[in-house]
Please model this.
Amino acid sequence: MPKYISRRPGKNNYLFRSVIPLSLRPSIGSRQFTISLETSNQIDAARLAEHLNIIVQQIYLSVAEGVIEAPSISQLRQKMKEELALQQHLLGLKVVRRFKFTEEVYLQKLIDDYHQYRIKIKISPSKIYAFLKAAQHLLDSAGNLPLHDVGHQHARQLLAYMDEIKIRRKNQTKTLNQETVRSYYKQIQTMFNWAVGQGYVENNPFANKLASPKIKKARIGRFDEEEMQLILGAELERQEPDRKWLVLIAAYTGARLSEIAQLTKTDISTQGHLVKISINNNNQKRIKNNSSIREIPAHIRLLRLGFKEWVEEKESNLFQKPARNFGAWFNNTYLPLLEIEDKSFHWLRHTVISILTDKRVPLPFIAQLAGHSTGHLTYDTYAAETQPELLLTECVNQIEYRTSHPLFSPSSQLT
Model:
């Protein structure tokens, strides 16, 4: 398929995509643009896109040679839409246009409808709460406007407004951090994308031209040996059992916090001498993706510490609090207590993967343990899962920590 044709994951219609020549980007004001070809038929899409590519290349050449002035990106996009409509007519293609609201719709109505839609498709309560916070910021900054009056200036106003919001945390007044601002802004972008698809508005004034600033992601690495000694040391023994076991399971499986916090008694099973931990999406449990579904044989050290006995004491859920509560405790209370700074629970997962990588454990074993795709299509499609016994000996039991605790020490016999 030519580079000027693309398709969004999970969407039916093809897109025309044009990368603007480097020399013209300053004058046109963009790196690239896309428009919908309004068809899910690959042959029709190819015919339409080929014509559009010829037209847009002619425009680029005329601008470069000084024949015409450089159009703005909106003018260029509009020109391509006009050419698309003309070509659709010439080829006799029938295009089903989106339904368009004829009555005046206000911003609050859009927010309410989108809110109900997200509930209907079972978006998590935490994400719905984040959307409602973002929507309230939009209403506070712009007011309950008719949708046809909402424009790019309101996107700029929203960002400026959120930059000035004051919140209280630990007896201190702070502004929203830029990652939170970006997250709220993307919620509004997504709502207006949905609004375009539903016919509320013709375009999304929060997309493309006005994006919130890019945030440099926090570095995620591994805990060093001394830090793991502290994390798995005497202080952990003084914590309540659920917190203790959450940390231990993470340290000896590399599982994600959300995966561990959702475990139930039925997720733990035995197969001969093996005890297996099942990460699954049964009973409406949420997982990251299909690669996350897996079975992990329990490390011998978990068994020595009484993992089976602890599970037997449970009635259903192994943990009584949601993942965010455990994450807040570990990040904001436990690590500061150990004087470990600027790190989080997720570093346990990276620590496990790093230990196994250092020991040159084969990538397919590490990927199966961590719930990752290997990145190799052939292997991911056709290779069977490693047998639990082999995964235990060649991967799981290679996770070792040098601590003063005799049950954690690598010198203790693994039998």
Remarks:
- The first strand starts at residue 5 and ends at 7.
- The first helix runs from residue 25 to 28.
- The chain has a mean pLDDT of 84.
- The chain is about 50% helix and 10% strand.
